[in-house]
Amino acid sequence: MKSEYLYLAIAVMAIANYITRVFPFLFFIKHKPPKIILYIEKNFPPIIMTILIFYTLGSIDFTKAPYGLKEIAAIVLTIFLHYSFNNYLVSIFGGTIFYMLLVQFFF
């Protein structure tokens, strides 16, 4: 009985996800996207990176060792990668992988 509900829930979530992914393409075939959508499309990656930085720094206690050094180092590397490659995916994944390595092996 429970597995039937689980399969139904997965099917509903899959359909809802599919509809939300397909709808913009179907809607904007005949219409030009509004200026706000174009603005979001252009500025979404830096917005996400800013949110990730504030999320990362929000839970750090700078008064206790290691004083946020691993977070600051990951942010600095992310900024360096972004200015070097000018690619948001390289910046986000490179900084994240570097941070995970610092957390697992050094601090």
Summarize the structure.
By secondary structure, this protein is mainly α. It has helices at 2-27, 35-58, 69-85, 88-105. The N and C termini lie far apart (47 Å).
Tag the structure with descriptive keywords.
mainly alpha; 4 helices; 107 residues
Explain this structure.
The protein has helices at residues 2-27, 35-58, 69-85, 88-105. With 107 residues, the chain is mainly α. It folds into 2 domains: 1-31; 32-107, no CATH class. Helix 3 packs antiparallel against helix 4 (88-105). The chain is flat, with a radius of gyration of 20 Å.
Rg (C-alpha, Å):
20 Å
Order of helices and strands: HHHH
Tell me the fraction of residues in β-strands, as a range: under 5%
Helix segment tally: 4
Structural class: mainly alpha
- Helix fraction, binned, reads over 70%
* Number of separate structural domains: 2
End-to-end Cα distance, whole Å, is: 47 Å
* DSSP strand tally: 0
Low-confidence stretches: none
What's the average pLDDT? Answer: 89
Describe the largest sheet: none
Tell me the overall shape: flat
Strand and helix map with partners:
Elements: H1 2-27, H2 35-58, H3 69-85, H4 88-105
Helix pairs in contact: 3-4
